[in-house]
Specification:
- 28% of the residues lie in helices and 22% in strands.
- The chain is of the alpha/beta class and 296 residues long.
- The strands form three sheets. It has a six-stranded mixed beta sheet with strand order 1-2-3-4-5-6. Strands 7-8-9-10-12 form a five-stranded mixed beta sheet, covered by helices on one side. The chain has a three-stranded mixed beta sheet with strand order 11-14-13, with no helix packed on it.
Length: 296
């Protein structure tokens, strides 16, 4: 696509992005039901952030984790961050849903290969991989740390970063271990949003390696100082709008909190844990740091 046309399209999309970002800050996601057997909500909820960025949430009645997934469309390539908690294409037709979105966006009859990345290697973020492998239009990068190191040529993990061009759109991948040793965060220059998986989100921040987690939070703060960041989007919501936590495994979240966290939230976390050499639970309004047994 001609660069001038792309520039014009981005200018036209800027108001859409700003409006939708504001909507996202107060968007009430489908958060389950008191009687899931009678619920009729779709298997996946879709929020269009701008013309080429989509946020998906898996139905909480189908899996209590209800993770968020992110799709980035460029001129030459597309990236999906995480495949969620449900393997079955019958229960959660995620691959076909994304293929339909891509077909409509590219309008060429031939969609580019979808690159599937993962925020980390836990089951509620990788379960849908088999759908994309079977669908034949995706290149699924393994979620283990070794897979990410090889893909991004990050042999001094967790040092370094990896930048890749989707075609007039750049994503930057950063190792951010602590929750899980292969965890990553992704900065998107187009939306100016930092996507942080289970490292930072409105809920329980489970920490399995305290020193690495501290370093990763410091790294995220540094990223916000190097790049404009409109907000941070993680992979779950586990609290209500008053900061009260929902019970683990709950399939209904009444008055659920909103998804975006702010740079100030991140800086507050960093300032509280910087001088803590040993794992310690720390409570904030919008999240709670929870040290757990290492090794998972």
């Amino acid at each position: 696509m001609n660069r001038l046309i792309v520039a014009v399209l981005l200018l036209l999309c800027t108001p859409l992005l700003a409006d939708n970002l504001n909507q996202l800050k107060t968007h009430a996601w489908y958060s389950g039901d008191v009687n899931c057997e009678l619920a009729t909500a779709p298997a996946v909820e879709t929020f269009q952030l701008d013309a080429s960025t989509y946020i998906f949430r898996q139905n909480k009645c189908l899996h209590y984790e209800a993770p968020f997934l992110y799709l980035f469309l460029g001129d030459k390539q597309a990236v999906l961050l995480d495949t969620g908690a449900i393997e079955s294409a019958e229960k959660m037709p995620l691959a076909s849903h994304i293929k339909n979105i891509m077909s409509a966006y590219y309008q060429s009859g031939k969609i580019p290969t979808l690159m599937v990345l993962h925020s980390h290697n836990h089951s509620d973020h990788v379960a849908g991989d088999k759908q994309f492998i079977a669908a034949g239009f995706a290149n699924v990068i393994g979620a283990k740390r070794e897979n990410v190191m090889q893909f991004a040529n990050l042999w001094h993990w967790p040092a370094g970063q990896f930048e890749f061009d989707l075609g007039n759109r750049r994503l930057m991948l950063y190792p951010t271990p602590g929750h899980q040793h292969g965890a990553i965060s992704v900065y998107d220059q187009q939306t100016q949003i930092l996507y942080t998986g289970d490292t930072f989100y409105p809920g329980r921040l489970y920490v399995r390696d305290w020193l690495q987690f501290k370093a990763s939070i410091a790294k995220l703060v540094s990223i916000t100082q190097q790049h404009p960041v409109r907000g941070l989007l993680g992979a779950h919501i586990e609290i209500d709008r008053h900061g009260h936590e929902f019970e683990v495994g709950a399939k209904f979240h009444h008055n659920e909190a909103f998804l975006p966290l702010s740079v100030d939230d991140l800086k507050d976390l960093a300032s509280k844990i910087t001088h803590l050499d040993k794992p310690r639970e720390v409570k904030f309004k919008n999240f709670r740091v929870v040290p757990v047994v290492q090794g998972r």
